[in-house]
């Protein structure tokens, strides 16, 4: 059974997690499928934007707890398996932000624990207005330490710490206010709104978007002075692209750009 489907149309790759009976949990198989798909898309110059979504009642409910409990049967109580699991998950999450194409999460139902981490990791997110978000592992005695990494890079520290320590869920409107998602829309408009955002990005110069995405995450780790110096160098690289020259000339000439 295929648990991840890819469909390409109009320069947008749509990845659909299809394990509804497990609420699209990040099982070993799902992690492997997502990592492979993101690697393939990153090398595919025909793809300019990516949509990640799920089937069934949930976007993603986090790690597969049944698999995790089965890992305890090892002689070391599961220590090696757990370390490998969280390392593989971190690799997949970081791949999303290192690939050249922007990735948009199309979220519905629930996004919990590592599923919420997945939303926070994607470059953008559109959610149905009845979606709920939570880093609720603390409710079962497991603090969401790895989801915390992505969450605290999206929202304020105090709000993040409250979610992490109480297991409280937030609705889509609050998630938007906190900065976890770009916007909440009516469920009937979710697919259309996400597609329109992806298509808007797909129409831009791919080389500029690639340079910009890389710079966006790199500068965020720097001091202000370092970031300006780095970003200035990036602007120079961007200006020297032939298609950027064409884009500026087209703007000045009040005509559409003829990008290669």
UniProtKB/TrEMBL annotation:
Classification of source organism: Bacteria, Pseudomonadati, Pseudomonadota, Alphaproteobacteria, Rhodobacterales
Keyword terms of this UniProt record: Fatty acid metabolism, Lipid metabolism, Lyase, Transit peptide
GO molecular function: hydro-lyase activity
An individual GO BP term: fatty acid metabolic process
Protein family according to the UniProt entry: Belongs to the enoyl-CoA hydratase/isomerase family.
Protein name (Swiss-Prot/TrEMBL): Enoyl-CoA hydratase domain-containing protein 3, mitochondrial
InterPro entries: ClpP/crotonase-like_dom_sf (IPR029045), Enoyl-CoA_hydra/iso (IPR001753), Enoyl-CoA_hydra_C (IPR014748), Mitochondrial_ECH-domain (IPR052377)
Role, per record: May play a role in fatty acid biosynthesis and insulin sensitivity.
NCBIfam families: PRK08139.1
Matching SUPFAM superfamilies: ClpP/crotonase
Short name of one Pfam family: ECH_1
């Amino acid at each position: 059974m295929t648990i991840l489907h890819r469909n390409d149309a109009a320069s947008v790759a749509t990845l659909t997690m299809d394990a509804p009976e497990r609420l699209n949990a990040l099982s070993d198989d799902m992690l492997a499928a997502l990592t492979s798909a993101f690697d393939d898309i990153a090398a595919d110059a025909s793809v300019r934007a990516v949509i990640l979504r799920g089937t069934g009642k949930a976007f993603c409910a986090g790690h597969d707890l049944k698999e995790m409990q089965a890992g305890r049967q090892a002689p070391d109580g599961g220590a090696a398996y757990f370390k490998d699991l969280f390392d593989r998950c971190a690799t997949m999450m970081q791949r999303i932000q290192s690939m050249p194409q922007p990735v948009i999460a199309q979220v519905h139902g629930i996004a919990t624990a590592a599923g919420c981490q997945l939303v926070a990791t994607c470059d953008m997110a559109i959610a149905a207005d009845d979606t709920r978000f939570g880093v609720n592992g603390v409710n079962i005695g497991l603090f969401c330490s790895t989801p915390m990494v992505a969450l605290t890079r999206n929202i304020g520290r105090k709000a993040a710490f409250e979610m992490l320590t109480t297991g409280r869920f937030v609705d889509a409107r609050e998630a938007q206010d906190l900065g976890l998602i770009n916007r909440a829309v009516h469920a009937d408009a979710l697919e259309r709104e996400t597609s329109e955002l992806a298509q808007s990005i797909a129409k831009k110069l791919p080389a500029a978007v690639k340079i910009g995405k890389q710079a966006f995450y790199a500068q965020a780790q720097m001091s202000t002075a370092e970031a300006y110096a780095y970003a200035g160098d990036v602007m120079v690289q961007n200006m020297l692209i032939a298609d950027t020259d064409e884009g500026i000339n087209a703007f000045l000439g009040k005509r559409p750009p003829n990008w290669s």
